Amino acid sequence: MQEIAKLGYVGVQSPAYEQWRTWAPEAFGCMLGPDGDDGAVRIKIDDADYRLSIHPGDEHRLAYVGWEVLSHRDLDTLVTRLDKAGANPQVAGRELADSRGVLDLVTFQDCFGQPYEAFCYQASGYKDWDPPRPHQGFVTGDQGLGHVVFVVPDARKAVDWHIDVLGFRPSDIIKLREPLGDMWFLRANPRHHSVAFLEIPELLGLHHVYLECNSLDDVGYSYYDVLGGDQNPDMLMKLGRHIGDQTVSYYIRTPAGFFIEYGWDGLAIPETEARSPRFIDVRKGKRPEMWGHEFTMQPNETVRPYKR
Question: Do residues 113 and 168 both lie within one domain?
């Protein structure tokens, strides 16, 4: 029932796409991958040719989220289920698949019409990992590219669709204070979550992408020495540690409008471990953080989604 193995890549459009050539390497120690056919700046954090693709565009906009399956047979099975669910799956032509750097590609939409893709066999022949500064690398492999978080008007609708159609499993549920609603965390592999949904009435869009470092020192160096820590006006949440996935991280607004969570030591849940989703009710005083993660922006800014 579960063909989706991990988050593979995220693509956005932005008029500030060229800023990523220097911003991502300086801020996070990422490499640059091969440019896209349209001049897109691509960010590389492991053997895959790229994980983030920033395309030229007139406004900040989500272009696609790519979910990896492990074989072309899994992709065929997924297409059948997507078709039954009314997700409008379309087998991509050779030109589009090549532009994504994959062998086989299918495009479809989630339950809110957001642009999704499923693929298998991503290219990894560009360059070996060689960061622009000392860096211990990122946690990817079987866990894929970190995670992606969306603001949605109905979290339960999003969760049910991702469980029923894509085969995700819930890890945690957080009941937040108004005006925020439920936040659900879903996993496709041992990573605590590959996708999560924050419920905000009448809002829809990409909120943030998570990059997980192998070393706490790389997070601390980026936060304090490169980005200026608490004094950076684009910092959304200060350095802290979550209770749910136990990640030590901070959140910062990128030149393309969405946020990056940059962190270390996220919780992995072994597939052999039977674990019912935990329910954390922040309204009754339960802390969502072990420590830190203080918001530095006004509430309306912290929940503003990235335009889909």
Answer: no
- H/E stretch holding 77: helix 72-84
More confident residue, 273 or 99: 99
Distances in Å between the Cα of 112 and the Cα atoms of 33, 86, 115, 161, 254 are 31, 12, 9, 10, 24
Tokens at 103, concatenated: 């062998």
Residue 108 sits in a domain of what CATH number? Answer: 3.10.180.10
144 pLDDT more than 90: yes
Shared domain for 44 and 80, answered yes or no, is yes
Within-domain flag for 163 = yes
64 and 209 housed in the same domain = no
DSSP letter for each residue of 96-151: HHHHHTEEEEEEEE-TT--EEEEEEEE---S-----SS----B--GGG-S-EEEEE
Q: Are residues 158 and 291 in the same domain?
A: yes
57-115 confidence digits (pLDDT tens): 999 999 999 999 999 999 999 999 999 999 999 999 999 999 999 999 999 999 999 99
Round to whole Å and give the CA distance between 62 and 55: 10
Label residue 293 left, alpha or beta by phi (over 0 means left) and psi (-120 to 50 means alpha): left
Contact assessment for residue 65 and residue 82, using Cβ atoms and an 8 Å cutoff: no
Residue 134 lies in a domain: no
Q: Note down the domain range covering 243.
A: 141-307
| CA gap 213, 139 in Å, rounded | 6
- Phi and psi, residue 297, nearest 5°: -115, 165
Cis before residue 179, ω within 30 degrees of 0? yes
